Amino acid sequence: MRGACTMDATAFADIAAAFARFHAHFAPLFGRREVRARGEQYLRGLLVQHADRRNVEHVAEAVVGATPRTLQRLLTEAPWAHEPVLAALQAYLAPRLSDPDGVFILDESAFPKRGERSVGVARQWCGTLGKTANCQVGVFLAYHSRHGQALVDARLYLPKTWMADRDRCRATGVPDAIAFATKGDLGLALLREARGRGELTGRWIVADDWYGRSAPFRDALDADGWWYVLDVPRDTAVFTAPAPVALPARRKHGRPPTRLRLAPGATPPQQVAALAASLPPEAWLVMTAADGSQGPRRYRYAVRRIWERRDGLPGRPGWLVIRRNLDGSDERYALSNAPADTAPQTLVTVGATRPMVETLFRQAKGEAGLDEYEVRGWRGWYHHVTLTLLAMAFLLTVQQTGGVECVELTIPQVSRLLRGLLPQRTWTFAELLTWLVGTQRRNARAKQAHAERRCRDGTSPPPSRIPPEG
């Protein structure tokens, strides 16, 4: 690093005006003027409220003119459609991120919940907690290129238990047209919509082994023309050669065989872990996966041509990418359908983009409150997530247009700057007292409502009534 780092102060001179222009770009999609205004307030509140959990009550405390009720209505009642906003988001990000060598990343994020009334909540694997727990799960699409990365779309996963109970779905606003879809189905829908919009370019797809283990998912990606590098479990079986197949000999009695089997003497498939263990030392090369904050991330790799297994027989030819730490620990496996002339370094570089979505989730939760919503319905979930993705896009915009001459600002650094530069509400003593009284009464009403529900359920005695105000 040469010389002193200097910051382009002009990029931050009028950040409020830049935020106003950003909001104006999307505002027509929110409909009526008052809904547009509430959208601006909520978006700004997500960016500046960091002292408390970013529910509507705390967001309203940070923004002049906002109230918890109006912001709650923006999320749960206002009829603006999230789909056009997400389409506009991808169009907005295209000139900032899109690249022919761009990579789409599929992953899910879980949101722990206590009750049973939030849409899609169920006992299921919760990656946030690292165990099976009561949670909602969203499937997200991210996009990465040499210009940066962003979350660009999302779908809420509804377990089969939910789809089997249409009354429960209707109670939380799930449209009747929504049918059960696996996480892989949701991921494919996200990819197809992104390709149909044509804003973000690239044909590479990466995902973890939850998606990679599914042969139908891999086949669907291949049929749609994507090139994938998908993590797979260690027990995934592959062929190391195009083993011959044949029909079994016809028996004296019964129908003639119609199902192909491996020919006698053909090499059977191997699990990828066993294949890795059988490779000689010269099969492994030290390669750089990506540049990290502490320097190049280097691992030992073995890249081999294989044939995927389908119904016990050799299927599509492809690649097996095996990665180990330099000391031989933490072995990982990935399958790819990339063409036979693809350079191993390309497979390594593309595969190394997958963990970047974890950084995006961490930033979206820490800097824009992705996981801090308190809504139960279908519309509320999509509205909050959509506005969170918009907030992250503004952080990316500021990151790209401002910065330091010798090093790029991080998203958390940009977020900290915005908290100091975007307008926030200042409180008088009288306003604080009014806020305190209102908050206490809202909390008391919420407590009473919960007690009344428990009473209806027969689990507690009737609660005492809250006296009227005044």
Which key phrases capture this entry?
470 residues; alpha+beta; 2 domains; 12-stranded mixed beta sheet; two-stranded antiparallel ribbon; 16 helices; 14 strands; 21% strand; globular
Short recap of the structure:
With 470 residues, the chain is α+β, with helices and mostly antiparallel strands. The chain is 40% helix and 21% strand.
What's the arrangement of secondary structure elements?
Blueprint: H1 15-26, H2 33-48, H3 56-62, H4 68-76, H5 82-97, E1 103-112, E2 122-126, E3 131-145, E4 148-157, H6 160-163, H7 166-171, H8 183-197, E5 204-207, H9 209-212, H10 215-223, E6 227-231, E7 237-239, E8 245-246, E9 261-262, E10 270-271, H11 272-278, E11 285-292, E12 295-310, E13 313-324, E14 332-336, H12 344-351, H13 356-368, H14 378-401, H15 411-421, H16 429-456
Parallel strand pairs: 1-5, 5-6
Antiparallel strand pairs: 1-3, 2-3, 3-4, 6-14, 7-10, 7-12, 8-9, 11-12, 12-13, 13-14
